[in-house]
């Protein structure tokens, strides 16, 4: 380039002047020089021929092409079209957020989220979570740096004016930062997350944001509300209505997300809840396909589909009030708890088929209700001096919560089944599979805990950070001698086994999609990346309960094997079903290894050491599942606990083998 420019500047005779001026005898070596000459010396020509391009004139006069020389010069002067730049790291982080994390916590409205228009604090909060889902080695350090920057900016912004908490984007940014701080397994970040949570709870109470402004009407789930008028006559009017819906629903989802995080902190570290379901006077979150509608037209179409059964026939003598209110969280929960089914056909509960987020909120409320009942029972009926029953709740309490769980299960798509609506209309549900997966894992965990309560809860141990809570839970789950453990009645074991089998199967498959032949559901797939980090904690707690059951079954099976002697080898299949401990162990091992991987008859006949290998195999399987969930640090901390347990189990098996010899 420098040589060409030197030749053209200092040796003009050696350069062909292929660009003549149409008005005079001047000739030029470049087209841009000719344009400048015409503009300066023949302005009248430029004004009279505004539509004539120089390229067309060159073609008409059969002038030589500019060729490679002009391309080089254009590149030098920056006139050529620049190559497409790769997306910025911030864009990549946000894309990863919406692809992997957003389906598990649909707090933001993705169709209207504009990276270039959103406040920088919200973008930073999104990016600090999104970068965790990228393959770069420094993702944890990068996430922490963005967390600190976003947190500092938000604190400065809200410190000046407390009322700024009323802005929806402020709530969203704080909620995302709190989520990141909780599950990064960092003491300082968890402390900041707890401070954020306290600030959020205090702000929504102080600013009266726990209701939507209509709570004073004391609406009930059966009180009617007007159907939103469809203003489809103009696209502008429809879009305005859609954006209004987005704003209202965003605020509602923020409040429910604060409640969910409050529950998660309680389950994780045994902290006392700071907000009650009775305080939340919002209706349940809307159907998730309605929330994720990409356009106002799609939103209107989906809305009409949901309420089609109410709007098919018109009543000219009726009022405009037709669709019942969706109800509050507390009222909807009461409908689920109703034993007689009088409140179970509420329209909002019917719409749970389309609403995984609302279903997740409801099952979380049932979990918190079970924890409160268990906590109260520990204070009233848990004497420390004697051996205690595993199940703390009374049969009436157990039955009522179980009934509520069954009721909500009847209204939601089953796992491994196509989530088609009851009337045969299929839902575009693959994008909601991670959220349904979260719902079912939480459902199974809740059902387990009403028979096998959380160890941190019943011992009253409160931890101030997540790694300590994980370590303590692992320590409390360690097998103990009979005089130091709770009484495991057969009824409790079989109740737990029913949910444990389904839970372990879901843990092994991951979220994937809900179809039977979904390609993402296989073990080893990347589907677990789409799990919420709270689910990793529930997976750990479920597997700890499974460890207790496996250890009880293997110990009993080993003792029976020693007593039965040579008779064990005969009719093993029959004995495996007739002996409860063997049936329990066979059922669990069949889930983690497949039907062909259950404990074989030869294993029962080969001594206690071989039977105890089932425990070691189970612990290694759990460790593998937790290591798969390593996007967030939670999984690695939990896997380390299970690795330690597996090493001890291996030593125990070695000692048994030596004694058998």
Automatic annotation (TrEMBL):
It is found in: Nucleus. Gene3D superfamilies: Classic Zinc Finger. Keywords: Metal-binding, Nucleus, Repeat, Zinc, Zinc-finger. InterPro entries: VerF-like, XnlR_reg_dom, Znf_C2H2_sf, Znf_C2H2_type. Residues 19-47 form the C2H2-type domain. GO terms for cellular component: chromatin; nucleus. One of its GO terms (molecular function) is DNA-binding transcription factor activity, RNA polymerase II-specific. Pfam families: Fungal_trans. The keyword Protein biosynthesis does not apply. GO terms for biological process: DNA-templated transcription. This is Zinc finger C2H2-type protein. It comes from Macrophomina phaseolina (strain MS6).
């Amino acid at each position: 380039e420098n040589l060409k420019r030197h030749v053209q500047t200092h040796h003009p005779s050696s350069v062909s002047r292929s660009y003549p001026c149409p008005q005079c005898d001047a000739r030029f070596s470049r087209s841009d020089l000719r344009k400048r000459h015409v503009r300066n010396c023949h302005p009248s020509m430029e004004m009279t021929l505004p539509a004539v391009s120089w390229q067309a004139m060159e073609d008409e006069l059969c002038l030589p092409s500019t060729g490679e020389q002009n391309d080089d010069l254009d590149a030098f002067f920056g006139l050529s079209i620049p190559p497409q730049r790769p997306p910025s790291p911030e864009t990549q982080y946000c894309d990863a957020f919406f692809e992997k994390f957003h389906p598990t916590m649909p707090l933001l409205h993705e169709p209207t989220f504009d990276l270039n228009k959103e406040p920088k604090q919200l973008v930073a909060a999104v990016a600090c979570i999104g970068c965790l889902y990228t393959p770069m080695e420094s993702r944890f350090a990068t996430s922490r740096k963005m967390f600190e920057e976003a947190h500092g900016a938000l604190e400065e912004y809200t410190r000046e004016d407390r009322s700024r908490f009323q802005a929806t984007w402020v709530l969203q940014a704080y909620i995302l930062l709190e989520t990141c701080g909780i599950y990064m397994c960092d003491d300082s970040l968890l402390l900041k997350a707890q401070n954020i949570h306290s600030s959020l709870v205090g702000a929504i109470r102080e600013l009266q944001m726990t209701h939507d402004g209509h709570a004073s009407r004391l609406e009930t789930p059966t009180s009617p509300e007007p159907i939103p008028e469809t203003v489809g006559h103009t696209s502008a009017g429809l879009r305005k209505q859609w954006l209004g819906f987005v704003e209202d629903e965003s605020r509602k989802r923020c409040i429910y997300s604060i409640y969910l995080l409050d529950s998660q902190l309680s389950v994780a570290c045994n902290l006392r809840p700071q907000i009650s379901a009775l305080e939340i006077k919002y209706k349940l979150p809307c159907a998730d396909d309605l929330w994720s509608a990409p356009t106002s037209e799609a939103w209107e179409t989906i809305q009409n589909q949901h309420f089609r059964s109410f709007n098919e026939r018109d009543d000219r003598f009726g009022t405009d009030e037709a669709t019942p209110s969706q109800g509050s969280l507390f009222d909807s929960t009461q409908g689920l708890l109703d034993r007689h089914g009088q409140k179970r056909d509420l329209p909002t509960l019917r719409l749970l088929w389309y609403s995984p987020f609302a279903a997740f909120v409801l099952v979380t409320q049932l979990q918190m209700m079970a924890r409160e009942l268990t906590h109260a029972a520990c204070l009233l009926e848990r004497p420390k001096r004697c051996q205690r029953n595993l199940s703390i709740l009374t049969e009436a309490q157990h039955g009522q919560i179980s009934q509520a769980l069954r009721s909500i299960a009847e209204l939601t798509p089953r796992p491994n089944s196509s989530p088609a609506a009851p009337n045969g209309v299929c839902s575009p549900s693959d994008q909601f599979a991670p959220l349904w997966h979260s719902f079912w894992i939480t459902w199974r965990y809740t059902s387990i805990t009403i028979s096998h309560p959380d160890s941190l809860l019943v011992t009253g141990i409160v931890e101030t950070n997540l790694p300590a809570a994980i370590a303590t839970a692992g320590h409390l789950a360690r097998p103990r001698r009979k005089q130091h453990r709770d009484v495991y009645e057969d009824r409790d074991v079989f109740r737990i086994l029913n949910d444990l089998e389904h839970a372990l199967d879901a843990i092994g498959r991951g979220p994937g999609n809900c179809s039977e032949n979904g390609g993402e559901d296989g073990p080893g797939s990347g589907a677990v990346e789409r799990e919420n980090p709270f689910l990793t904690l529930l997976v750990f707690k479920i597997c700890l309960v499974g460890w207790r059951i496996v250890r009880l079954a293997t110990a009993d099976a080993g003792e029976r094997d020693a007593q039965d002697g040579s008779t064990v080898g005969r009719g093993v299949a029959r004995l495996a079903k007739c002996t409860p401990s063997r049936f329990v162990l066979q059922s669990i091992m069949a889930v983690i290894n497949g039907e062909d991987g259950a404990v074989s008859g030869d294993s029962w006949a080969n001594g206690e050491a071989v039977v105890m290998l089932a425990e070691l195999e189970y612990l290694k399987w759990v460790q593998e599942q937790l290591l798969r969930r390593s996007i967030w640090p939670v999984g690695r901390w939990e896997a380390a606990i299970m690795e330690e347990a597996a090493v001890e189990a291996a030593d125990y098996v070695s000692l048994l083998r030596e004694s058998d010899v």
